[in-house]
Amino acid sequence: MIKQKKQGNLIIISGTTCAGKGTVIQELLNRNSNLSLSVSYTSRKKRDGEIEGKDYYFINKEQFEDKIKNDEMLEYEIVHQDHYYGTPKKEVKELLDTGKDVILEIDVKGAQHVKEMFPETVLIFILAPSMEIVKERIKARGKENNEQIIKRFQTAYQEINEIPKYNYVIVNDVLEDAVQKVEAILLSETCRVDRIEEIAVENQEEIIHEFLMEKEFDNSPLYEDKLN
Q1: CATH number of residue 77's parent domain
Q2: Do residue 45 and residue 16 come from a single domain?
Q3: Model confidence over 5-59: pLDDT tens digits?
Q4: DSSP letters along 7-67, please?
Q5: In the chain, how many domains are there?
Q6: Residue 174: which domain range?
Q7: Cβ atoms within 10 Å, residue 2
Q8: 151: Cβ–Cβ under 8 A, 6 or more apart, which residues?
Q9: pTM of the shown model
Q10: What is the rounded distance in angstroms from the CA atom of residue 176 to the CA atom of residue 41?
């Protein structure tokens, strides 16, 4: 009776450092076959263990800048005034056109840029249970000095201030709970009225409706004949 639009949903998942958004996303992908994660382009060199087309598409700076000039990037940014990172427009559109829901794992700046171009984009922000836990997770990595940790915290607080611009916020305290909440959001988005392409009345329903308009509904043989 209700025909849904074939177009998939564009979903942006952002979050503060060490909020576990990558783990949430991976679990979502493992459990939902209609979900796809957009693979970004980067101009930095491939690191050991990274896979072309899975972790990133690796291109040089000149190639990336050509894509910008040709309007091939949905959003992009320069990290540490050195390397480009960006979301390919064509690949995302192709996935959406097949009915796939596409996840973009990008920061708040990129999220707002995409939202401006595509207002129907669903924005979800993942938070750690507390900043104290964030601090513990950063220290557990053992890869950063105090100056780098402070910088991460400053960025995290700036990002938290942007939460009102998002549609949903989820605290990643228990992974399973966080994943279920995202799944509930995605399910509710498929039921939105603006996702309906048309409402079609089936033939059997048309017959019943026409009969009720002409005759009083009384279970008479005439009614049975109409249905047969």
Answers
A1: 3.40.50.300
A2: yes
A3: 678 999 999 999 899 999 999 999 999 999 999 999 999 999 889 999 999 999 9
A4: PPPEEEEEE-TTS-HHHHHHHHHHH-TTEEEPPPEESSPPPTT--BTTTBEE--HHHHHHH
A5: 2
A6: 2-191
A7: 11
A8: none
A9: 0.81
A10: 30
